[in-house]
Amino acid sequence: MPEVPRMNELLILVFGAMVVLGAIATIISRDLFDKLISLGIIVAGIMPFLADRGLLDVLAATALIAPLSTIFILMAIRRKKDGS
Amino acid sequence: MNGYEIALALRVVLEKDTMRKLPFLNVVSFAISGSIVLLIPHPLAIVAAAAYFVGSTLESNAIASTYAGGPKDE
């Protein structure tokens, strides 16, 4: 059986720190667009964990649903800016 | 794959200008989709990585387009 490369401890720490950093930045930042960008960092951080377990179908579905949710939030932001 | 993504994510978070954050977010997403391909030697991995590549680029472009004002419809 061929050797299957797995995530080592350094990569687990790096991507976990990325998710935590994105969450903290989402809470702290004041601008709505900055919050959306930080949410993008969170989604980027969870993708290698899905790939590490071999959940490729879940990964593809998440990669297509997450930008869709961002676009829906953007529609709400744009309507709020037009109304004010 | 070597963990440089955390430096890029830190750069995104510490940047003050919103418009300047977006290219770094795009670079983070490209690095992540490269890491996905390098992590799993499976034929379906390239499909998932391509889906994430397209999705993240669409997300960044949607944020930038809305921030810049969007299409002017009168």
Task: From the structure above, extract its key features.
heterodimer, A: 84 residues, mainly alpha, 3 helices, 0% strand, B: 74 residues, flat
Please summarize what this structure is.
The complex is a heterodimer of chains A (84) and B (74). Chain A has 3 helices and no strands.
Into how many domains do the coordinates of chain B divide? 1
Q: Give start-end ranges of low-pLDDT stretches of chain A.
A: none
Order of helices and strands of chain B: HHH
The count of strands of chain B amounts to 0
Oligomer: heterodimer
What is the tally of beta strands of chain A? Answer: 0
Measured distance between first and last alpha carbons of chain A: 63 Å
User: In what range is the share of β-strand residues of chain B?
Assistant: under 5%
Mean pLDDT of chain A: 86
Broad structural category of chain A = mainly alpha
Shape of chain A: flat
> What does the main sheet of chain B amount to?
none
**From the helix content, strand content and strand pairing of chain B, which structural class follows?**
mainly alpha
Main beta sheet of chain A, described? none
Give the number of helices of chain A.
3
Helix percentage range of chain A: over 70%
From the N-terminal CA to the C-terminal CA of chain B, the straight-line distance is 47 Å
Helix content of chain B: over 70%
- Rg of chain B over CA atoms, rounded to whole Å, is 15 Å
